[in-house]
Specification:
Layout lengths: L17 H6 L10 E8 L5 E3 L7 E4 L3 H10 L4 E7 L18 H13 L4 E6 L12 E3 L2 E3 H18 L3 E4 L6 H11 L6 E8 L6 H6 L21 H13 L3 E5 L5 H11 L3 E4 L2 H12 L6 H13 L3 E3 L6 H6 L1
Parallel strand pairs: 1-3, 1-4, 1-12, 4-5, 5-8, 8-9, 9-10, 10-11, 11-12
Antiparallel strand pairs: 2-3, 6-7
Helix pairs in contact: 2-3, 4-5, 7-8
The structure holds ligand PBG.
Length: 330
C-alpha cells in the first residue's frame, strides 16, 4: 500500500545523492543473469561479421574459444549455439539436424572438451536452420505437420543430449513436443538434461536479423503464424505455459523480449517457474544501430536489460552478454 503525504513525504529526498539512490535500488544485473548466443559456421579460422547485427559474429569451431573464453572468464552461466549451415546441406526434411557430425554437434563436443562443466550449453530444438523452406517443422500439402515433426525433434534432442548438451530448448512451437521429448530423455538415460521450453514464442518481425544470421531469411516461404503465437494474445501464452510445465519443462522462455514484459510478469505471478527472456536480434539491432547513429546513448542497453529483471525474468538471452562487464559499468 502507498502511504504518506506531501510534504511529510518527499520521494525526492532519497533520490538526492548517488549513495542513497544505490541503497534503494530494487533490481540489478550481474553476469549470472545472462545467456550468450553464439553463431557457428563451417570452415577454418574464420570470424564473420553479421551485417544486420553490428558487433555480432559467426565463428568457425576452431575459433570458438575466442568467444567462449570470454564468457567463462566473465562467469556467464550458459551459451546458446546456433548454426549457419551451407545451403547444399539444407533440404525439405532438414536431415542435417540428425547428422552426428553437424556443426552443432561438433561445437558441443569442442566446448565440453575444453571447458567441461565451467559453462552450460543450450541448443535449439527446431529444424529451421536445416530446412530448405526455412520452417521449424516438416511440410506436407503446404501444412507444417505437428506429430511427424515431433518425431524428428525427439531424435534431434537425443543426438544433442548424447553430444553433451545440458539444456535443450525446443523453439519450434509444435503441440505436445515437451512431453514427448521428456519421455524420450528419461528412457534414454538423459534424465538430467534440462528442457527450456520456448513456450511463449510469438510470430514476430523482430527475428529478421537472426534469420539473416543463420541464412534462413531468403529461403523462408510464407510466415510462421500457424505455429508461433499471435502477438495480440496473452491468455493463450499462459495456456501454452501451463501445458509445457505439465509436460516436464524445467524453465520457460518468452520471446521476443521487450514488447512482451507483461507476459513475463504474469507467468512469474501465476506459475513460480524460472522464466527467461530472449532479447531477440531485432531488439539488439534496433538499439545498436540507434546508438551507432547517436540517436540514443549507450546506457539504453542497460536500461532495456534491467526492464527484463523488473518484469521478473530470472535470466536474459542477449547478444550483448559477451560485453556485459562494460555495460554493467555504465
Ligand atoms: C528458430 C529461432 C528463431 C530465433 C531463435 N530460434 C527465429 C524464428 O523463429 O524464426 C530468433 C532469435 C532472434 O531473433 O534473436 N527456431
Amino acid at each position: 500500500m502507498i502511504t504518506g503525504k506531501y510534504p511529510n513525504l518527499r520521494l525526492r529526498r532519497s533520490r538526492k545523492e548517488s549513495w542513497s539512490r544505490r541503497l534503494i535500488q530494487e533490481n540489478t544485473l550481474s553476469a549470472s543473469d545472462f545467456i550468450l548466443p553464439i553463431f557457428i559456421i563451417d570452415g577454418l579460422n574464420k570470424r564473420e561479421q553479421i551485417a544486420s547485427m553490428p558487433g555480432v559474429y559467426r565463428y568457425t569451431i576452431d575459433r570458438l574459444a575466442q568467444v567462449v573464453d570470454r564468457a567463462v572468464k566473465k562467469e556467464i552461466p550458459m551459451v546458446a549455439l546456433f548454426p549457419k549451415i551451407k545451403k547444399n546441406l539444407k533440404n525439405e526434411m532438414g536431415t542435417e539436424a540428425l547428422n552426428e557430425n553437424n556443426l552443432v554437434c561438433k561445437a558441443i563436443l569442442e566446448i565440453k572438451k575444453k571447458y567441461k562443466n565451467q559453462i552450460g550449453i543450450m541448443c535449439d530444438v527446431a529444424l529451421d536452420p536445416y530446412t530448405s523452406h526455412g520452417h521449424d517443422g516438416l511440410i506436407k500439402s503446404n501444412q507444417i505437420i505437428n506429430d511427424e515433426t515431433i518425431e524428428v525433434l525427439i531424435n534431434q534432442s537425443l543426438l544433442q543430449a548424447e553430444m553433451g548438451c545440458d539444456v535443450l530448448a525446443p523453439s519450434d512451437m509444435m503441440d505436445g513436443r515437451i512431453g514427448k521429448i521428456r519421455i524420450a530423455l528419461e528412457n534414454s538415460n538423459y534424465k538430467d538434461v534440462q528442457i527450456l521450453s520456448y513456450a511463449a514464442k510469438y510470430a514476430s518481425s523482430f527475428y529478421g536479423p537472426f534469420r539473416d544470421a543463420v541464412g534462413s531469411k531468403k529461403s523462408l516461404k510464407g510466415d510462421k503464424k500457424t505455429y508461433q503465437m499471435d502477438f495480440r494474445n496473452s491468455d493463450e501464452a499462459l495456456r501454452e505455459i501451463a501445458l509445457d510445465i505439465k509436460e516436464g519443462a524445467d524453465m520457460i522462455m518468452v520471446k521476443p523480449g521487450l514488447p512482451y514484459l507483461d507476459i513475463i510478469k504474469s507467468i512469474k505471478e501465476k506459475f513460480k517457474i524460472p522464466v527467461f527472456a530472449y532479447q531477440v536480434s531485432g531488439e539488439y539491432s534496433l538499439i545498436s544501430s540507434a546508438i551507432q547513429k547517436k540517436l540514443i546513448d549507450k546506457h539504453a542497453i542497460f536500461e532495456s536489460l534491467v526492464g527484463f529483471k523488473r518484469a521478473g525474468a530470472n535470466a536474459i538471452v542477449s547478444y550483448y552478454a559477451d560485453r556485459i562487464d562494460e555495460i554493467l559499468k555504465y
